[in-house]
Amino acid sequence: MNQLLSNVIWLFFIIDPFGNLPIVISMLHKYDSKKQRSIIVREMLIALIFMTLFLFFGKTLLSIFNLKIEIVSISGGIILFLMAIKMIFQDNYTSTELKKINKIPFVVPIAVPLLAGPGIFSTLIFLSQKEQNNNLNIFFALIIAWCVSLLVFLFFITIFKLFNNKGVNELERFMGLLLIMLSIQMFLDGIKNYFHIF
Description:
By secondary structure, the protein is mostly helical. It is about 80% helix and about 0% strand. The protein is globular and about 50 Å long.
């Protein structure tokens, strides 16, 4: 029981709903609350599918494509960096480019790599090795952590609706700055672990 609780807490903090919440809301602020909730539920389900697949088949998938977890971290950092640039400098885009940016997010970047990213992937592999491949126990902990994270998103989405449009736009730029730092950290972690430097 203690091990299950420990895994739940660990996975919850790696999914980090509180940290990802402002970034996710800033991407979805143009939609009404009902649409936001449906998008979040869908992206959370997609993220759960990726996390489950990686828990049970992650090492096999990486070996098939001759990839390392560090490559996932590097590519995820690049994706988040490009997204953050668009969040900060959105006023500099033409209307056509803005339409592309404002498409409803699907899989990238919310489900992957924000929710299901290299951090959770590497954690799942670590827990699998730690518990001698007892993946069903880890999966149960993952489901609990996922449910709590989903409740956090759905509950706090109403609070962010209190911001006016100008406030949300400024929040989006601020989150873009934080996202740039997060993406660079993710990229550097991948480089560091790949080359075993620093």
